[in-house]
Amino acid sequence: MDLTFITDEHKALIMAWGIKIAVALLILIIGFWVANRLTKIFGKQLERNKVDPTVVKFAKSLVSTGLKILIVLVAVSQVGIEATGFVAVLGALTFAIGFALQGTLSHFAAGVMLLFFRPYKVGDLVNIGGGQTGTVTELGIFNTILATLDNKKVIIPNGTVSSNIITNISGQGTIGVELTYGIGYTDSIDKAREVILAVGKACPWIIDDPKQGVVVAEHGDSSVNLATRPFCKSEHYWDTFFYMQENVKKEFDKAGISIPFPQRDVHMHQVK
Predict the structure, then answer these.
(1) Rounded Cα gap, residues 56 and 156, in angstroms
(2) pLDDT tens readout for residues 14-40
(3) Percent of the chain with pLDDT over 90
(4) Of 31, 106, 139, 267, which is the most buried if we count CB atoms within 10 A?
């Protein structure tokens, strides 16, 4: 191949551009590594200051994104492209992409609002829109991530979260466990109440204040329904629920208290 058309001037230009591109790539590689390190240091500093984990994760995402955008601008300027012109092009591109990603941007905006108003934090047990119930493991820029009781990972867009009813089950620190037990009409209410309170007293997670009580909630079709609401720490909700359900049944059996179930009496009449 004849390369005689490449003059010394061309070679110098190619060399100059090659150096600029190499420097720009070096800035990107080292800069991104430094950005990741600084983001980790920033996150650890927030954790040392006992900042809410929800805020820590969100802040780390914003810091990382901001630093990397700045590094890209510096790298581009090394190539010889004016930063102002690049920013203008980036702004126009962002505006165009914005129309295509309106849903994604709305999830980002919703994430900022959720972080600001704090209806829940990492570790809270929540119910969203009456559908998904689980423990919040992460409030990200675009999504909220829940871990369900059966250890499923549920990812919900922040826009969906903010547009639905949010029930923070554990946000108050303590929680009442709603329980109802049906007994037969011939069984003693007082005896059943004693059994339920005794099981509650033996439960290792039920707290003394507020005090547990047992009341007659309803005269059902086939049972007298007794309601109780023992309180426990939020993280022990399910432990308390399952403990009471199992042990009340066992103690009812020992005490001879029946738990009726729907049944039907059929009377046969002989037609003459």
Answers:
(1) 19
(2) 776 777 777 778 888 888 888 888 888
(3) 24
(4) 139
